[in-house]
Amino acid sequence: MKLRSVKNLVPAVATSDGAGVxxxxxxxxxxxxxxxxxxxxxxxxxxxxxxxxxxxxxxPHRGFETVTYMLNGLMRHEDSTGASGTLGPGxxxxxxxxxxxxxxxxxxxxxxxxxxxxxxxxxxxAEKMCAPRYQNIxxxxxxxxxxxxxxxxxxxxxEVDGTRGAVSGIAVEPTYLDITLPEGGEHIQPLASxxxxxxxxxxxxxxxxxxxxxxxxxxxxxxxxxLSDGEGVHMRAGAKGGQALLIAGKPLNEPVVRYGPFVMxxxxxxxxxxxxxxxxxx
Length: 282
Ligand code: MN
Description:
With 282 residues, the chain is mostly beta strands. Helices cover 4% and strands 52% of the residues.
């Protein structure tokens, strides 16, 4: 297996979005506009209510998918299709905005730890105007693969040792794994050649071990490690163990024209999105 190496390390930029929610942004920030097919990656995490209490009041999306993965805390969502619910620790919401949705994402707590990730995944031109849909997965419905040496993998999307992920039917054939390695633990995860892939470490210490140069690169926290092409990735934890997201997907190789919450293929389609939203068509 040709193992992927770390091609680039992209440190997060502290920013805020919605009504003042503090975020660490890597994809979609000033350094990395997108990592086709991924348009944005935000990590949110704070014990201070003031950092998240404003939440994300009503806002539209068109042309892509928003994926919210909660680690801690409660987030309530409501949208223009009439759907609503609360995302709790360990749950995932894969929302395909398609031709348009207006929703809110508001904390259902005033203090205490709120932590998680939001990823934006692009849709191919042919599916940008599809009907909106959701996959809301409760924590207990996300398959977990446990190895004898203590590696624990939550399979949100993709496949690990024959176990299929909870989310299916997504255009870019994503892999979305939450991988916990014990002290000194290792995991080699096959990934489709040609897929864009990255690793985001958020607990402990994890290094990526490449096959060709024998290079070992430790991935710092709040930093996106973009992986080179290859057939798989070899991860190894340090003395304290570690936890990371490993995410991959098929590039679309189509023009990306973005304007806030709209991501389309041309300027004209963005103008149409603004027009349709103002006309109340979402
Ligand atoms: Mn949103």
